[in-house]
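Collaborator request, handled under Task 6.
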Amino acid sequence: MSKKLRFAAGLLALCAFVALSSAAYAETVIHGPDPVVDAGDPDGWSLLNVFTDPIVAPSPTNTLGLMTTVNYWAERGDGAHRIQPLLVKFEGGVYTIIGVGTEHAADANGLQADIPFGLTEGTATFDTSTPGVTYHSAVLQQVDGGDQGPAGGPINTGATIPFGDAGGNAFVQDTVGPNHDPNPGDVVTAGHTTTTRNYAYNVEVDFPPIPEPSTMILAWIGLFGLLSYAFRRRKRGVK
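C-alpha cells returned to the collaborator:
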C-alpha cells in the first residue's frame, strides 16, 4: 500500500473519530441545591415538593432533557421513609405529573447519592423549547403506615429530607396520603410555598447534544471513505 493511500486512510479515520466523539457526551444540569447539604429538619407529614424554578437547558440548541439521577439528604434513614422522584410540567397555570420514578428508602441517615430516576410510568424526557411549557423536578415523601398531611391527619413523621435554607423556590402539596400513589396526569396543587427555604435534594438531568449538520457530514465522509478503502483492499486481495 502506498504512502498516499495510508495517509488518506488515516485522515478519513481521524475525520470519523473527531466527528463522532464530538457528539458523544451529554451535558448534565443539576436542578435544585448543589451541593446537597443537611439543611434542617424534615416536616412532620407526608408531602409532595415541586421546585417552581424550571429546568433550564444548557443551550438554546440543546433542549432535549432526560431525568437520570436523584441526590438527597436523609434525616430518617430507617428503611420506612421513602422518596419518589417525579417529572412535572407547568402549562396554562397548572402543574401536572408527567413522569414517575422509582421509590427509594434510605437505610441510614446522610447523603443518598446517584439514585437512578428509574422511570416506572409516563416519561423521563422532555423538550424545554416546547412553547408555553416549563418542566420541573419534584419528590414525593412518605412513610409506611398510612401517613397523611395535616388536613387529613394523623400527623406522623412522613418526610425524610430536611427542610431548611437549601435554596431554590418551591411549593408543597401536603395532603397526599395515605400511601399516595402518584400517576401521570395528576394535578399538583400548592398547600404552602417554601420560597428560599427548601428541601435538601436535587435531580440530575442529561441533555444529549444534537450534532451539527457539518459534524454529521464529516462523520459520513470519514465512514464512507473507510468503507470504500476496505472494499478496494478486499477486491484487490491486498493483505
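The cover message to the collaborator said: "The first helix runs from residue 3 to 21. The helical segments are 3-21, 213-236. Please let us know whether this matches your experimental observations."
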